[in-house]
């Protein structure tokens, strides 16, 4: 009896165990499914977060790229769209949401505040949340939607830059090649090759100097050729001096400032006291045309002594609104009052100044009369009325160096930011100290090697970019 009851009890327990397993199996399956969805959801969310970060990066990169172009070039809406899409797609290459993100790519340009805003959105299919759509109604959507935006400032300003470079005889052939490469780097950074520079917002003038500046076709006008054509020859222009009550030597007053007489005196114009200019290294007034600047840079050759004050002066005049009637209309400098134009000058030398020019009205000459044994000679003051070159020892305090620094100060007072570059190893030389004095605060560079000169010019160009973008 007891044995039978024991068998029945065991049988019932076994049956109960079987019934319990039957209820746990489906419950376990449901729990596994829920766990898959939970952990899978984490995967889907993580994928969407990663995609959103990639989208954000691509938006920022595209906006920055276009902002850099807008800082130097006027762009149409279609050009902006093309440039944005190109950079945007490059940063999302291979992403499954790229096509949708490109379709939703939009931008807004605020010309008044100088900003470009870029937005985009996309979707990413879920792998786990809806289990292929099976549990969509219960657990969630079949895709994740995400988006982002970015805003970048660009420069509203136009830029005028005078590139004043030393092409004197002390520059060796290797030095000249380095100077050509460094100057080309400036053009490439500030006027990148976009295929069309016609709308570029940056204009650059090139002023190679030695004993004077080769002004080419512009020389005759500023030397008084309209009144004294018989006395004016050659394209080499030196400097000018004060006349009577007109103190113009260290100013950017117009070349034809003198209006007290119908025919201005010859000495009120610029001089041509030397033929020491390089015949191929010619001044180029402000231009945004790479095809004008780059060949002129390639043609730079060295010749003559150092009249740095002349190069500095003509660098200033290339930026001065008082010289709008000298240059072609496309090269006319903006007025100083134009708050949307920034003016810069890069002045470079490898040595010390040793030349200046004065207009000589009379001088003492030995004058002889009579013939042979009856000839008598005496020193007499005779009229000369011509520009004469004066050579001088190289020093920080000589006439040409003093004039150079005074001209730099006047340029800076006019609102032009100046960069000074000394190409040499002696940082105590007159040339180095002149460039230190000429440079605006924080803008002096010493380049003791060829690679350093190229790097200095490139760094200055990038600094100019930062200045006009940050403003």
From TrEMBL:
Keywords for this entry? Membrane, Transmembrane, Transmembrane helix
The UniProt transmembrane annotation reads 21-43
Has keyword Hydrolase?
Answer: no
Entry superkingdom: Bacteria
One Pfam family hit: Tad
* Record bears the keyword Nucleus: no
Give the PROSITE patterns listed for this entry: VWFA
VWFA domain location: 160-464
Q: Output this protein's name.
A: Pilus assembly protein
Which organism was this protein described from?
Roseibium aggregatum
